[in-house]
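Meet our chain:
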Amino acid sequence: MNAFPANVPAATLQIAQEAEMRNIAKTPASEVIRVGIGSNGFATWVYKNISIFGTAEILICDGDMVVANFPANTNLNFKLNDDGTITVTEEDGTVITQISNTVRVLCPNGLLGVKDLKRAGKQALYHGVFELVKTKNNEYFNLVNLIEVEDYLKGVVPNEMPVHFGLEALKAQSVSARNYVLSPRSKSSPNYDVVDSVASQVYFGANTEKPLATKAVEETEGIVALYDWELILAQYSSTAGGYTENYSNAFSDPTTKEFPSKEKPYLTAKPDILSQTPLNTEEAAAAYYKSRPDAYDIRSSYFRWTREWTADELKKALQSTLAAQSATGFVKPAFKKGDTLDNLVELKVIRRGDSGKIIEMEVVTKNQTYKVYKELVVRRLITKDGKALPSANVVFENEKDENGNLVGVKAFGGGFGHGVGMSQYGAGFMATELKLPFDKILKHYYTGISLTTKPVIISTDVSQISVTQHFYAPKKHAKLVIDNKFGVDMLMAEINGKEHIFELPKELIGHKRFAEFDISKFIKEGKNTIKFTSPEFTENSYAQKALRLYVELVGKDDRSDIW
């Protein structure tokens, strides 16, 4: 009998038994994640009632039990009652059942949909399973899509990057998006891992999949970007403006709110043209952002942009944004709601990052100076016609009259978004114009990474005795990397159906035993499957032993001198 992994509360034992009788049970090929599905316009992720249908036979489950099935395109209504139960009715109001447990909805041979829910102008459709999970105090329920990572990515990649950016750029986007969803994170709700909007990644479901994006996902299956055994935080934005920024200069620490935050060695400032010197002075930033130098994301309409205000326009805008941004803690002193802003004297930049991104600036008025920190706060503070600045890579020109009074401000900027990590427009240029493969694109934007499978642990714990990984090998190259901290003697790996035994070295290197094996000759160019285990790991083993390992598919390559 097949079932979902033990740590994913989806198709549990009875559901799997019911499913097996209907010949619909299958073992997931990749991790199963939980996605909170929002309403139209992402106005809410909580519901009192909802209408669901399937494009094929639909199954309704009360907790672990299948209680009803209906033919394709039958709209079924789910309503939360005051007592915490959910009533399921047909479209004409006929009551089907009342469910007290978590509601699960499956469409084994088709897709699930929510009546009138639109994504990208189309009826939204979804792979996987729906759960209706009640919130605290049973006031509402969340609609949660349980879906395999690789299917999820097919609904993400074409909505995060235009498909005309090319296959290799889409592959780079696939790896970055896979890293994002597999990385540990603080959850906004205990009921799901991520949401389907820009608050996480844009996931519009099966009806927005595109063949080229699907190919990109499939031809990077299982591949993640790794730095020192950890999945990297694969930040990306639309347009870097020709120069990416250090993570620490753009983001605050998510826990302590410290800014600048701690550095991430793989998210470092880097110009597209390596001869370009840092832009951390006013003179250098002005020269760069008032011109159009060669860069990978030069085709973006936001590569360079300008904004202009009269002194009164800017004062009015700041009057409404200062209080909101003060609430972030990155405006000092705080400007409280109801406070009146004095006449402006100037906008003054105090510190810049290597890309010219503003780290600290001042809003100087006649009687007060407000210090402003952090790129997102700067963007949302300095608005034009109610819209935030495209980026904080911006140079201000304060225009004054003959008496020294401020009469207007001009802004010259470059880029769209935070500008850390991969530039999506840059990736598109590198793929279509420079004909670079996805690994070269990723290694330009993420310093010192390796492209590997997700690190896994096999151990004497009954849930970890064996691990199976599916992955695509783009270059018929593979190296098995093992952290043998506990001195295990042997590893067994069933590679594409054939068993191989690896004797592990005993020498101690630092505080860990590392072993590397070239397994390229066992690997197919394309999709591969490996099952890891060890004869030392059995259910009856009393010694606590473990191995940590991954398969390196494209090696570490710090070269970024593409131009």
